[in-house]
């Protein structure tokens, strides 16, 4: 333990104010940004310097109490000080203050032996202050991180619920989200019951894909809002690996986060219906689950099947619609279809190619044939109810 005379301790007590003033003057001289700080924040730094200088004397009396003494200096400063100066800038200020104390304090020693003791004590005390400042910033970062996590969860929850657009946008902007960036909602099972693990898994994969994300764990369900276009299927493939076992459904990519509720509605509808397609890819787009969603009673899926398939085929002409219906009814046997329609098989081939161009679905493929069959059935039901 450091031993100095009571005479030296008294001299240090009297000089603590002078040391703090000298440290502030040196900070002002060396750092232009320090002079531009608001008056209240400069006063906070002055408070830390004064408390730190006074704490040095207490430190000499009891090194075991050093951590509490140095922490007190930062605890008395306003919480928002860390928003004005970075950790790097704080370390620079600590370095200057320690240099001033190291320069001035030895002259207050009663003799040469105490001079050496004080020099070494200043270095140790400076180390304690540096560690405490780092801990102060780490604590502030942890607090902000917890606040951001709660805010992020509320934004994702608002997207799922379809809350008021303005409040959603303001909260998303507070998290640094680009409000003009396209957004896609993915839903699936959470990979873990431990939220920090889930956050790490999702963010690490999003970072590798160079995409911002928002995420929320809702019970056993994980909801991820992914920024940017998703034309490249590899992006969704990477993000799907951060989900737990089971299907992962991606909603449509919308123009910005204000429309993300629509993407979440379709993704959640797809997640409820995907059980009807056991061999569905992972991830699967909600638009690729239109038949299953329609069977599950999703009116939006029914409307899309009519708008994208049934109505375009009808508008294209009765012969085209009749050919597709007949081809599906005979199980895709070309010759039988041609015979029932009293046309040449090449005519059937031509009409099927036209139907593929119009709808994007090829009646010769089993999955596409199912989509066409369900779409035409939904169209007939809608027409019978006078809805189309």
TrEMBL record:
Gene3D superfamilies: PucR C-terminal helix-turn-helix domain. Keywords: DNA-binding. The keyword DNA-binding applies. GO terms for molecular function: DNA binding. Residues 320-377 form the PucR C-terminal helix-turn-helix domain. InterPro entries: CdaR-like_regulators (IPR051448), CdaR_GGDEF (IPR041522), PucR_C-HTH_dom (IPR025736), PucR_C-HTH_sf (IPR042070). It holds the Pfam family GGDEF_2. Residues 162-273 form the CdaR GGDEF-like domain. Belongs to the CdaR family. This is DNA-binding PucR family transcriptional regulator.
